[in-house]
Specification:
- The structure is a single chain.
- 71% of the residues lie in helices and 0% in strands.
- It has helices spanning 2-30, 37-44, 48-51, 58-83, 89-106, 108-115, 129-132, 134-148, 162-175, 181-202, 213-227.
- It is mainly alpha-helical.
Protein backbone atom coordinates (compact mmCIF):
# COMPACT_ATOMS: atom_id res chain seq x y z
CA UNK A 1 0.00 0.00 0.00
CA UNK A 2 2.84 2.39 0.81
CA UNK A 3 4.37 1.86 -2.65
CA UNK A 4 1.00 2.41 -4.35
CA UNK A 5 0.36 5.56 -2.33
CA UNK A 6 3.84 6.84 -3.17
CA UNK A 7 3.26 6.25 -6.88
CA UNK A 8 -0.07 8.08 -6.73
CA UNK A 9 1.52 11.01 -4.92
CA UNK A 10 4.29 11.21 -7.52
CA UNK A 11 1.77 11.08 -10.33
CA UNK A 12 -0.31 13.81 -8.72
CA UNK A 13 2.78 15.97 -8.24
CA UNK A 14 3.72 15.51 -11.90
CA UNK A 15 0.26 16.46 -13.14
CA UNK A 16 0.15 19.45 -10.77
CA UNK A 17 3.50 20.65 -12.10
CA UNK A 18 2.32 20.22 -15.69
CA UNK A 19 -0.82 22.24 -14.98
CA UNK A 20 1.19 25.07 -13.46
CA UNK A 21 3.71 25.02 -16.30
CA UNK A 22 0.92 25.34 -18.87
CA UNK A 23 -0.70 28.09 -16.80
CA UNK A 24 2.59 29.99 -16.84
CA UNK A 25 2.71 29.67 -20.61
CA UNK A 26 -0.77 31.18 -20.72
CA UNK A 27 0.42 34.04 -18.52
CA UNK A 28 3.05 34.83 -21.14
CA UNK A 29 0.63 34.55 -24.06
CA UNK A 30 -2.56 36.02 -22.62
CA UNK A 31 -1.88 37.59 -19.22
CA UNK A 32 -3.22 36.62 -15.82
CA UNK A 33 -6.67 38.13 -16.38
CA UNK A 34 -7.35 35.65 -19.21
CA UNK A 35 -6.10 32.55 -17.43
CA UNK A 36 -8.64 29.78 -18.04
CA UNK A 37 -8.81 26.33 -16.48
CA UNK A 38 -10.61 25.02 -19.56
CA UNK A 39 -7.84 26.32 -21.82
CA UNK A 40 -5.17 24.76 -19.59
CA UNK A 41 -7.03 21.44 -19.63
CA UNK A 42 -7.41 21.58 -23.41
CA UNK A 43 -3.69 22.18 -23.96
CA UNK A 44 -2.81 19.29 -21.66
CA UNK A 45 -5.29 16.94 -23.29
CA UNK A 46 -7.35 16.68 -20.11
CA UNK A 47 -11.07 17.00 -19.61
CA UNK A 48 -11.81 20.06 -17.51
CA UNK A 49 -13.50 17.99 -14.81
CA UNK A 50 -10.20 16.13 -14.24
CA UNK A 51 -8.29 19.38 -13.84
CA UNK A 52 -10.75 20.58 -11.21
CA UNK A 53 -9.59 17.72 -9.00
CA UNK A 54 -6.22 19.48 -8.81
CA UNK A 55 -7.37 23.10 -8.76
CA UNK A 56 -11.03 23.69 -7.96
CA UNK A 57 -11.08 27.17 -9.48
CA UNK A 58 -9.10 29.66 -11.50
CA UNK A 59 -8.36 31.55 -8.29
CA UNK A 60 -6.91 28.41 -6.69
CA UNK A 61 -4.55 28.01 -9.64
CA UNK A 62 -3.64 31.70 -9.56
CA UNK A 63 -2.89 31.41 -5.86
CA UNK A 64 -0.58 28.47 -6.48
CA UNK A 65 1.28 30.41 -9.17
CA UNK A 66 1.53 33.48 -6.95
CA UNK A 67 2.90 31.49 -4.03
CA UNK A 68 5.42 29.81 -6.32
CA UNK A 69 6.58 33.19 -7.63
CA UNK A 70 6.87 34.73 -4.17
CA UNK A 71 8.77 31.67 -2.96
CA UNK A 72 11.14 31.78 -5.93
CA UNK A 73 12.07 35.45 -5.55
CA UNK A 74 12.21 35.01 -1.78
CA UNK A 75 14.58 32.08 -2.15
CA UNK A 76 16.81 34.17 -4.43
CA UNK A 77 16.92 36.93 -1.80
CA UNK A 78 17.65 34.49 1.01
CA UNK A 79 20.45 32.79 -0.90
CA UNK A 80 22.02 36.18 -1.59
CA UNK A 81 21.65 37.06 2.09
CA UNK A 82 23.45 33.88 3.15
CA UNK A 83 26.22 34.44 0.60
CA UNK A 84 26.69 38.11 1.53
CA UNK A 85 28.60 37.51 4.76
CA UNK A 86 31.05 38.91 5.79
CA UNK A 87 30.45 41.96 3.59
CA UNK A 88 29.61 45.37 5.06
CA UNK A 89 25.90 45.96 5.77
CA UNK A 90 25.33 48.31 2.84
CA UNK A 91 27.01 45.85 0.48
CA UNK A 92 24.88 43.00 1.86
CA UNK A 93 21.75 45.03 1.19
CA UNK A 94 22.88 45.67 -2.38
CA UNK A 95 23.57 41.96 -2.90
CA UNK A 96 20.07 41.01 -1.77
CA UNK A 97 18.54 43.70 -3.98
CA UNK A 98 20.56 42.52 -6.98
CA UNK A 99 19.31 38.98 -6.50
CA UNK A 100 15.70 40.19 -6.50
CA UNK A 101 16.31 42.22 -9.66
CA UNK A 102 18.05 39.33 -11.39
CA UNK A 103 15.11 37.06 -10.66
CA UNK A 104 12.63 39.64 -11.90
CA UNK A 105 14.48 40.20 -15.18
CA UNK A 106 14.69 36.44 -15.73
CA UNK A 107 10.99 35.92 -14.91
CA UNK A 108 9.18 39.09 -16.04
CA UNK A 109 5.76 37.48 -16.41
CA UNK A 110 5.86 35.93 -12.96
CA UNK A 111 7.09 39.24 -11.59
CA UNK A 112 4.15 40.96 -13.28
CA UNK A 113 1.77 38.43 -11.74
CA UNK A 114 2.80 39.32 -8.18
CA UNK A 115 3.93 42.94 -8.51
CA UNK A 116 2.00 44.19 -11.52
CA UNK A 117 -1.60 45.22 -11.95
CA UNK A 118 -4.13 43.34 -9.80
CA UNK A 119 -6.00 40.54 -11.54
CA UNK A 120 -9.67 41.57 -11.91
CA UNK A 121 -11.92 39.59 -9.59
CA UNK A 122 -9.06 37.96 -7.69
CA UNK A 123 -8.38 38.49 -3.99
CA UNK A 124 -5.18 36.96 -2.64
CA UNK A 125 -5.79 34.71 0.39
CA UNK A 126 -3.87 34.65 3.65
CA UNK A 127 -1.72 31.80 2.33
CA UNK A 128 0.17 34.26 0.12
CA UNK A 129 1.26 36.52 2.99
CA UNK A 130 4.13 34.41 4.30
CA UNK A 131 5.73 33.82 0.88
CA UNK A 132 5.22 37.50 -0.01
CA UNK A 133 7.18 38.59 3.06
CA UNK A 134 10.36 36.63 2.28
CA UNK A 135 12.17 39.43 0.44
CA UNK A 136 11.23 41.90 3.15
CA UNK A 137 12.47 39.51 5.81
CA UNK A 138 15.81 39.20 4.02
CA UNK A 139 16.22 42.97 3.95
CA UNK A 140 15.22 43.22 7.61
CA UNK A 141 17.79 40.54 8.46
CA UNK A 142 20.54 42.75 7.03
CA UNK A 143 19.38 45.59 9.26
CA UNK A 144 18.97 43.37 12.31
CA UNK A 145 22.49 41.97 11.87
CA UNK A 146 23.90 45.48 11.54
CA UNK A 147 22.14 46.57 14.71
CA UNK A 148 23.42 43.50 16.55
CA UNK A 149 26.94 44.44 15.45
CA UNK A 150 26.41 48.01 16.65
CA UNK A 151 26.70 49.62 13.22
CA UNK A 152 23.10 50.62 12.55
CA UNK A 153 21.60 53.11 12.26
CA UNK A 154 24.18 55.83 11.69
CA UNK A 155 22.58 58.28 11.98
CA UNK A 156 19.16 57.46 13.40
CA UNK A 157 16.39 58.23 10.89
CA UNK A 158 14.13 61.22 11.60
CA UNK A 159 11.34 60.41 14.05
CA UNK A 160 8.38 58.76 12.36
CA UNK A 161 4.88 60.14 12.89
CA UNK A 162 2.87 58.25 15.50
CA UNK A 163 0.52 56.71 12.96
CA UNK A 164 3.51 55.31 11.04
CA UNK A 165 4.96 53.91 14.24
CA UNK A 166 1.71 52.03 14.76
CA UNK A 167 2.03 50.64 11.24
CA UNK A 168 5.59 49.61 12.03
CA UNK A 169 4.45 47.87 15.20
CA UNK A 170 1.82 45.94 13.27
CA UNK A 171 4.30 44.87 10.59
CA UNK A 172 6.91 43.96 13.20
CA UNK A 173 4.46 41.84 15.15
CA UNK A 174 3.17 40.12 12.04
CA UNK A 175 6.57 39.06 10.71
CA UNK A 176 8.35 38.71 14.03
CA UNK A 177 11.02 41.30 13.31
CA UNK A 178 13.15 42.10 16.34
CA UNK A 179 13.51 45.77 15.47
CA UNK A 180 12.05 49.01 16.81
CA UNK A 181 8.88 50.01 14.99
CA UNK A 182 10.40 53.19 13.44
CA UNK A 183 13.19 51.09 11.93
CA UNK A 184 10.62 48.68 10.49
CA UNK A 185 8.92 51.67 8.84
CA UNK A 186 12.21 52.65 7.21
CA UNK A 187 12.79 49.06 6.09
CA UNK A 188 9.31 48.98 4.55
CA UNK A 189 10.20 52.09 2.56
CA UNK A 190 13.34 50.39 1.23
CA UNK A 191 11.25 47.32 0.29
CA UNK A 192 8.68 49.43 -1.57
CA UNK A 193 11.27 51.56 -3.36
CA UNK A 194 13.23 48.47 -4.39
CA UNK A 195 10.21 47.03 -6.18
CA UNK A 196 9.49 50.43 -7.69
CA UNK A 197 12.96 50.46 -9.23
CA UNK A 198 12.64 46.91 -10.48
CA UNK A 199 9.14 47.50 -11.81
CA UNK A 200 10.29 50.48 -13.84
CA UNK A 201 12.90 48.29 -15.50
CA UNK A 202 10.74 45.19 -16.00
CA UNK A 203 7.86 47.19 -17.48
CA UNK A 204 10.07 49.25 -19.81
CA UNK A 205 9.83 52.61 -18.04
CA UNK A 206 13.58 53.18 -18.42
CA UNK A 207 13.61 52.48 -22.16
CA UNK A 208 15.21 55.34 -24.03
CA UNK A 209 16.31 56.92 -20.76
CA UNK A 210 18.66 54.75 -18.72
CA UNK A 211 21.02 52.50 -20.67
CA UNK A 212 23.58 51.75 -17.92
CA UNK A 213 20.99 49.74 -15.99
CA UNK A 214 23.37 47.79 -13.74
CA UNK A 215 25.23 50.89 -12.60
CA UNK A 216 22.00 52.81 -12.14
CA UNK A 217 20.45 50.06 -10.04
CA UNK A 218 23.51 49.60 -7.84
CA UNK A 219 23.73 53.33 -7.21
CA UNK A 220 20.03 53.58 -6.42
CA UNK A 221 19.93 50.67 -3.97
CA UNK A 222 23.16 51.83 -2.32
CA UNK A 223 21.40 55.12 -1.65
CA UNK A 224 18.45 53.18 -0.24
CA UNK A 225 20.79 51.32 2.10
CA UNK A 226 22.36 54.58 3.21
CA UNK A 227 18.91 56.08 3.75
CA UNK A 228 18.31 53.66 6.60
CA UNK A 229 21.77 54.10 8.04
CA UNK A 230 23.56 51.08 6.59
Amino acid sequence: MTAIRGARERARAEVTAAIKDEARRQLVAEGAAKLSLRAVARELGMVSSALYRYFPSRDALLTALIIDAFDAVGEAAEQALAASLPAAPADRCVMVCRAVRDWALAHPHEYALVFGSPVPGYSAPEATVGPASRVGRALIAVIADARADGVFPVPEPPPAPEELVRDGERIRDRIGAGLPAPVVVEAAAVWAELFGLIGFEVFGRFDGMIEARDAFFDRAVTRLAHSVGL
